Amino acid sequence: MRIGTLSGSLASDSINSALLGAIGHLVGERAELVPVPIDALPLYGRDADAGHPASALAFRELVRGLDGLMIATPEYNRAIPAALKNALEWGSRPAGENVFAGLPVGIVGASPGAIGTALAQQQLRSGLAFLDAPTLGQPEVTLQWRAEMLDAEGRISNAGTRAFLGGWADRFLAHVAMHAAARAAASGKAAAAEVAA
Ligand SMILES: Cc1cc2nc3c(=O)[nH]c(=O)nc-3n(C[C@H](O)[C@H](O)[C@H](O)COP(=O)(O)O)c2cc1C
User: Fold this and answer.
1) pLDDT digit string (tens) for 82-97?
2) pLDDT digit string (tens) for 122-155?
3) Where are the domains of the chain?
4) Is the domain 2-196 a CATH 3.40.50.300 member?
5) Residue 10 alpha carbon, nearest atom of ligand 1
6) 46 alpha carbon – ligand 1 mean position (Å)
7) What's the pLDDT at 184?
8) Which of 172, 162, 145, 169 shows the shortest CA–CA distance to 14?
9) Ligand 1 centroid – CA 23 distance (Å)
10) Using a 6 Å cutoff on CB, does residue 111 contact ligand 1?
11) Cβ of residue 77 lying under 6 Å from some atom of ligand 1
12) Measured from the CB, is residue 73 less than 6 Å from ligand 1?
């Protein structure tokens, strides 16, 4: 399974990028993890639909080649960061060429604040629903971040948190596998119908 890891933060010391790294340790060899950078994307404007820049074409190609996508979103002003929203725009256009359609997504997020990105995640979930990307509903990962959560190797140091995030990773991989099987069955049926026609 090829799983993209997309951090909604552009910060070099991002806690959300660190969270993705820690979950990556828990996924281990069960999937190929592919970083999906969004920092080279220019600000989306509708005029670009006449011809996307190379950075957007590369982003869209990368997402198209995935079986699933993990997104760690920060919460900025009770919403998703502009950089992440911008990436959704690039992936969704031109109209009818939305690369997120059918792509299973897992959302996580971390903040020093008590609600741990819950509002940003809700907003992201709503945008992805419109883009026809099936998101894992439960468990929600809304982490109130503390620096001591990670050890020197970027692994989760607390056993309870590690078990919780490990359980999330198990559920997310099952979510991706379920959708991959459904897509394979649908394309098998389409191929059979083509042969029969
Ligand atoms: C512009 C801005 C707005 C923020 N707004 C919120 C917010 O609405 N809720 C929240 O919990 N934290 C908020 N924070 C604090 C972030 O949660 C914190 O900076 C966190 O480290 C961002 O994630 P990152 O390190 O992955 O970039 C905000 C930070 C910035 C820079």
Assistant:
1) 999 999 999 999 999 9
2) 999 999 999 999 999 999 999 999 999 999 999 9
3) 2-196
4) no
5) 27
6) 28
7) 80
8) 145
9) 20
10) yes
11) yes
12) no
